[in-house]
Design brief:
The chain is built from no helices and 7 strands. The protein is mainly β and 99 residues long.
Amino acid sequence: VGGPVFYGCKVGQHLFFSTVVEQSAVNRSRWAEVWGSAQGGSWRLVRRYRKDLWPLKYFQYGQVLFPSGPGDDKHLWCTPMATKQDQQTLKLRLEGLFD
């Protein structure tokens, strides 16, 4: 994965985690990523969001947050922060995501 993992969630039987844009000697990616797995076996990159232009030293890391709560088992809800789609709540349909 392209950066450290700060957040994760479960939607039905699907598992998800997101990476954070945190520049260091080993973390060079400018993309916050969402990774998913249908049942925890194989993982795939689901979405990625480019870090915005504001410097990491003074502003937030690029990241993707997941809500707390049960959800509807058909959608992954997420909110990118400090990225090109900053503070937009996104609804990603699970059907066909892992085909």
